[in-house]
Write a sequence for this structure.
């Protein structure tokens, strides 16, 4: 794809504002971190519901949407069957469970009152909790329990910076030399941009580690590589959903970048991959 200067400037300005907000939420304190990912959770769930509505020509009842959001909130901080992390505010655990129960009741009741209701649509709607909330819950788990740090900050910073670098390099390289489409799902993405973005991102961390600018252990490099590769699949998955829904963007909260899912699609696939790596190799 050809390099579009105006598009690049618009995307860059929006990205700077977005990065400032993200970094504030990530680095200020744990409560800003929780608030940030609560907002991301709600935004992604809302846009996912809109896409599924369009794909299956259904209109999920407002009561069901509220229920879905409440269950997603409960999943984000208190997965009912796993309890994967001690979050150290036991006084609200009961309340979170209660919120989840209310959410299930509202979702179940509202779902059967939805326009063009079909029982089989329970699957794509309830998968939102796995695709969005369960993934973001793993991010919170990494924030609290991970032994890997990046510049003295929790592991999520490394994941997000890796995705930002990969997205930027893939866009630039694809714009300049990209000729071969990566997939019919996302024809603007090229093999050259995708491979170049991954390799250049990993290379930067290797060089930074060589010159002692960062602690570039084998685990850091592995996490960066896994993040960029799995993030690409996350991007393609969301592109497939948008193609099925016949929309260009999942939303419009970021000019030049689209909606929440457009911005965090890579993250939603990268988080579980890194989480599994940490659980297997960094017990």
């Amino acid at each position: 794809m050809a390099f579009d200067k105006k598009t690049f400037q618009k995307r860059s300005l929006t990205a700077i504002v977005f990065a400032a907000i993200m970094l504030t939420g990530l680095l200020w304190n744990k409560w800003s971190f929780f608030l940030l990912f609560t907002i991301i959770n709600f935004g992604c769930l809302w846009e996912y519901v809109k896409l599924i509505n369009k794909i299956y020509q259904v209109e999920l009842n407002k009561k069901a949407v509220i229920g879905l959001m409440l269950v997603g909130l409960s999943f984000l901080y208190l997965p009912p069957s796993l309890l994967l992390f001690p979050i150290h505010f036991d006084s609200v655990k009961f309340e979170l469970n209660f919120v989840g129960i209310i959410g299930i009741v509202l979702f179940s009741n509202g779902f059967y009152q939805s326009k063009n209701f079909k029982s089989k649509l329970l699957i794509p709607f309830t998968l939102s909790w796995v695709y969005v909330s369960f993934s973001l819950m793993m991010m919170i788990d990494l924030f609290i329990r991970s032994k890997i740090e990046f510049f003295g900050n929790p592991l999520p910073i490394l994941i997000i910076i890796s995705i930002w670098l990969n997205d930027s390099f893939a866009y630039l390289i694809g714009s300049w030399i990209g000729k071969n489409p990566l997939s019919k799902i996302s024809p603007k993405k090229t093999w050259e941009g995708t491979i170049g973005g991954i390799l250049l991102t990993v290379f930067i961390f290797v060089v930074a580690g060589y010159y002692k600018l960062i602690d570039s252990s084998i685990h850091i490099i592995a996490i960066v590589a896994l993040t960029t590769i799995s993030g690409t699949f996350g991007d393609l998955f969301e592109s497939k959903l948008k193609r099925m829904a016949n929309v260009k963007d999942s939303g419009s909260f970021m000019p030049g970048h689209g909606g929440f899912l457009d911005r965090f699609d890579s993250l939603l696939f990268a988080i579980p991959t890194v989480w599994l790596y940490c659980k297997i190799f960094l017990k």
